[in-house]
Amino acid sequence: MLTEKRNPAAGGEPANGAGALRRAQGDYSTAIPSNAMPYERHIPDAWELPLDLVDMPIWCAWKLVQKPGKPKPDKVPVSAADGLQGSKAWGGKKNPKPEFCTTAEKAIYYANQAKDITGVGIILMPGFGLIGGDLDGCCNSGTGAPTEQARRIIEAADTYTEVSPGLEGYRFIARGTFGGHTGNNRAEGVEFYEDGRFLTITGYHVEGTPHAIEERDLSELGAEYFDKASSDTKAGEAESETGGGRGLEAFELPPHVRGWITDGVEQGTRSDRIFQCAKDLVRAGATEGEAVAILANPEHGISDKPLQERGGDIQGARQWVQRYAVAPARRDVGAEPDEFDDETGSTEATGWPEPVDLFASRPVPPFPAQVMPEAWQRHAAGLSAQTGFDPGGYLFAMLAHAGCLMDHRTRVAVNSSWREPPLHWAALVDSSGGGKTPILGAAGKPAMSIYSEINKRSARELMEWHKAADSAKKGEEPPRPIWKQRNTDDGTIEGMRDALEGNPEGVTLAIDELTAWLGSMDAFASARGAASKDRPAWLEAWSGKEDRVINRAGKVKVIPHWAAGVIGAIQPEVLAQQFKRGQGSSDGMMQRFMLYQLRPAADGDLLTEPDMLADASAHNVFQAVANLAEEGPQHYQLDREAVALLQDYMQAIRVLAARTPGARFAEHLGKFPAFAIRVALTLHVVHAVAAKERPYAVISAETMERALTIMRVLYRHSEAVYTVLDEASEEARRLTVSAAEAVLAKGWMVLTRGDLTRDATGWRGANSGDAEAATDLLIEFGWFADITDQAQRGKRGRRSDGRFAVNPRVHEVFMQHSQRIKKERAERFQAIHTAATERQGIS
Predict the structure, then answer these.
(1) pLDDT, tens digit (0-9, with 9 covering 90-100), for 23-44
(2) Helices (H), 59-194
(3) Cα atoms found within 13 Å of the Cα of residue 843, Cβ hemisphere only
């Protein structure tokens, strides 16, 4: 094998040409590095790939995800444009999204920068005329030599061919057709696809095949394998029905499904469970006959239902299973969107997020760490590993501190009249003891150390001035240095006036409990009605007011730049009490805070060693931001595409605000576009300095999309908090929980709105708006994926009327909840049965 790469466009042999493997007498071989390992991270260079393929905008990255119990890892597509991943992001076979993809060079650059990415690949987008073939388990990983069958197929295709990531298979790409003869023939290890499929690309070119995408009509080749596959399937089904075929042990099934099959299920759920088992068997590759034989096997507990239906007759039980479980299961599975695993042919959904705990008091999605600088991600992960606290809380507070550390006179322009400063008002929200204070302390440590150095420097300058003044002649004293500070814990207007007078860069009020700040806001109010004088001053501090006049006790001062960031924490119940007292009502004071509801803490490990390199890198980012602030105010501009994204977002926010029953929450939503602009500015600067670059004056659409990714998450956090404050939106929350309980109790993997209406408490007769909101929550919280077909003419086509796939992880993560729910439902069923029996006995 070769240990060097060579440019095929440059011609010639590699330096160690004697070690090259060549095609000889019909043999094929490839140049794979001698230390290459299956599925390892490998990013090809653009010159290793066919030129006509490189220019097509069909490229993306991919990452490796190993699922428990699966022999091979899944390969999950990742957009090099925005980092979104999975079949939902790229649209799947039925609706591939061109915007998910980019050029080869951009995908390769993205993959090289993102360390969690394994490689690059393409999606067979409609309109490009590409077809692809995969040959599994037919390549010698040491020499790259194919089996006889693989050699014959490679010769017939006669187009660009390479070794796949597992190093034991081949892939070829051509322009043309298989004549519609496509699919996955597992028996032969052959897969042919014409469009709507994701394929990884390694660049391990098979020597002896063209280094170009050739025009080919491979209809005969396709018909050879997929006509044969059809007959094999029918034969397999016939064999299974007579007792042959593969048994239960041959299929990879979720543990709870395997338990249902072997041990049986309780009465009242048997029909649902046998249908679910049938779908999982079909997904796992069982033929119809094999699934029937397994589910009607008298040795399996699941067979109790069909045997009871047919009076113990095994053949009758088979027919019942075939008609009422397996046949409809095959129809359902065939309609599901799948994500193609190019090695195993698996259609199991991949890229599912970790489902949110809907049974927590205020469930919220996690902070999108992927949009933050890598140094911050590692720093937050290390802190969380030690404490068990939500890593998103650390990242949220770091984001807020970074924005506040910038010069508050800096502006980002949306247009000629709309400009926003970089400062944030941000609050962590949780009940007492939830970890707010330690998170704020650890996340703010880099910024606070910088503020401390500024204070120490001012103290030294003042001390030196005192010495110089003492030794100078009267009237010749040097001018007193201006006291510099960028932070304070004095939240009074008088305190802010004194701090801002000599610090036009702005200051940050960092306090543990915002309740204390709100309570002390009017401490200097002298008489009735004076409270209103403080609040407008603080509202102007959020906006960055120029030439603010402060008049207290007859002393008038003009502050040229009146701006302040505020970072702290609050308990939602206390916040509700503040609202009831009128704070945060009509003037929008509280609504100017970005809110992050801490997720439940996990078990920490105090013996975890800190990542000193990550900690230092995170501090360096803050120091670079501070250095930039010392240069004075900077001016930035959103580019046209970023403005277009913002405009679309503003329209969506207006719709949400108009439909929100809580007045305070609706007012809070009105601040979200400004939040998004400030977050985009902060991300723009921190990503630039993290890469040791000076920030460009123009902020791109990519950065705006990162900011909007954060804002979409913060929307749900604000919604959770304002549910407590406004005592609104509880019905959607109750419907969400009842749907989750039904999913766990019934073991659903696919469901419809009708299933929820029948089996989920409160869904029958629920307000359509609440049901729609609950469905959206279940999707955003990682429980459901929308697999509804496109709306048909004459039908409403509403999402809540559609079909949804269930995240398989919910049945594993919430198994205890499932057992509790089943027990409660069984007790309720027994109570109803007992009550009905007793009534029958009444004369």
Answers:
(1) 333 456 666 777 788 888 999 9
(2) 87-90, 104-113, 148-157
(3) 0
| Core vs surface per residue 356-388: b (16+ CB within 10 A) or e | bbbeeebbbbebbbbbbbbbbbbbbebbbbebe
**658, two tokens:** 């108009």
* pLDDT one-digit tens code per residue, 317-333: 887 888 778 877 776 66
Return d(Cα 592, Cα 269) in angstroms, integer: 49
Structure tokens at 104: 């080869």
Tokens standing for residue 629: 């602030």
Could you give the 3-state DSSP secondary structure of residue 287?
A: coil
> Looking at residues 356-377, what average pLDDT do you find?
84
Where residue 341 falls among pLDDT bands split at 50, 70, 90?
very low
Distance CA 433, CA 520 (A): 23
DSSP codes of every residue in 186-206: TTTTEEEE-SS-EEEE---BE
Confidence of residue 202 (pLDDT cuts 50, 70, 90): very high
CB 116 within 8 A of CB 43: no
Report the pLDDT value the prediction gives residue 703, as an integer from 0 to 100: 94
Amino acid in position 646: L
Residue 612: band (very low, low, confident or very high) from pLDDT cuts 50, 70, 90: confident
For 476-503, write each residue's pLDDT tens digit: 888 988 888 999 888 777 788 888 888 8
Structure tokens at 815: 């198994």
Question: Which tokens sit at 317?
Answer: 């039980």
Mind listing the pLDDT tens digit for each residue in 427-461? 998 876 678 889 999 999 999 999 999 989 988 98
Judge whether residue 181 has pLDDT over 90.
no
User: What is the C-alpha to C-alpha distance for residues 449 and 537, in angstroms, rounded to an integer?
Assistant: 28
Spatial neighbors of 692 by CB under 8 A, at least 6 apart, are 624
Cβ neighbours of 197 (radius 10 Å): 24
Alpha helices, DSSP H only, in 322-408?
327-335, 374-387, 391-405
Q: Which two tokens stand for residue 328?
A: 């409809």
How far does CA 255 lie from the centroid of its chain?
A: 26
Cα(811)–Cα(806) distance, integer angstroms: 9
Q: Is the dihedral of CA 183, 186, 190, 196 positive or negative?
A: positive
Closest CA to 548 of 607, 471, 496: 496
Distance of alpha carbon 105 from alpha carbon 100, whole angstroms? 15
Contact 290, 236 (CB under 8 A): yes
Average pLDDT of the chain to the nearest whole number: 79
Q: In whole angstroms, what is the distance from residue 354 CA to residue 791 CA? A: 29
Please report which confidence band the pLDDT of residue 757 belongs to, taking 50, 70 and 90 as the band edges: confident
Rounded Cα distance between 711 and 695, Å, is: 22
Using DSSP, how many helices (H) and how many strands (E) does the chain show? 28, 26
591: pLDDT confidence band, cut at 50, 70 and 90?
A: confident
Three-state SS annotation for 510-531:
EEEEHHHHHHHCCCCCCCCCCH
Give the type of residue at 90: W
